[in-house]
Amino acid sequence: MRENDADRQCLATVGLDKEQKSNEEQLDLYDYLKDSAKSQLPFSDMSTSGVKQINCSIEQITLENCLILDTETTGLDPENGNCIEVGSILFNITNRSILAQQSFLLPVLVNEAEAINHIPAVVSQLPQPWQEGLGYFKSLVDSSDLIVAHNAIFDKQWFGIGQLPFIDKPWVCTMEDISWPSELQLRNRPSVRDLALAHGVPVWAAHRALTDCIYIAEVFQRCTDLEILLKQGLEPRRLMRAEVSYEQRHLAKQAGFRWNEPIKGAWTRRLSQREMRDLEFSVVPVDFSN
Questions:
Q1: Predicted confidence (pLDDT) per residue in 5-20, tens digit
Q2: 65-231: what fold?
Q3: Is 49:81 a contact under the CB 8 Å cutoff?
Q4: What distance in Å separates the CA atoms of residue 119 and residue 112, rounded to the nearest whole number?
Q5: What is the pLDDT of residues 59-71, one digit of tens each?
Q6: Which of 118, 198, 257, 284 is the most buried (most CB within 10 A)?
């Protein structure tokens, strides 16, 4: 890292020296990350220097374990469906090793997504210790420093509702928050299948919770710079709109921006300040006050 005046000021503010960083400072950072995970605009009210201080702090935190998580559901949102299956893997980042893995069904009356996840509702109602499974799942959450999910926005919405506990941990999305190396030739927002195949992981099934977790764990085992990717995934992000003409729309599409989603008539994407600097076009924050 080049230590110009701004960098030295940032490092002095957040305490770059690992020997000087106290447990209390780490807890303060985790509190920020957990709070920001609840908002669609994590740094909308922060100054540039404030975001830079958070980013410098993220570089210094120690990530030991992550919980790779996936859900299967009977609908697209909690108002129109339920979670029918939870899969999770406790993964040690330093050793690139699986420490524990778990999958269990939750009983539901109907499963309108059976054609996709192949879980009959009647099977979910068979006697099995799902309550004990929930207890063990909570212990895995407690043992992790962060939660990893593919399409985290979808999975996160099911927790804190019904039987599933609220998860008070920072989340990283392997589809949107991680910038995978360009040599993998992945499209922006890659599918789990494409991500696995790009890393040489065989794909044998889809749409079961633990299976998708295994794919992500296998990908992580092959990542030499996993710590960097995860820390970059924790950087504050906000929804930005691409300032491109109709003739330039391909630039926004190539950069992973989505048309009409979630903002009608606009190319948008959640970006960190680091990602904004790498763009070939200008972006502006989405104003939700209008």
A1: 434 344 333 333 444 4
A2: Nucleotidyltransferase; domain 5 (3.30.420)
A3: no
A4: 10
A5: 667 899 999 999 9
A6: 257
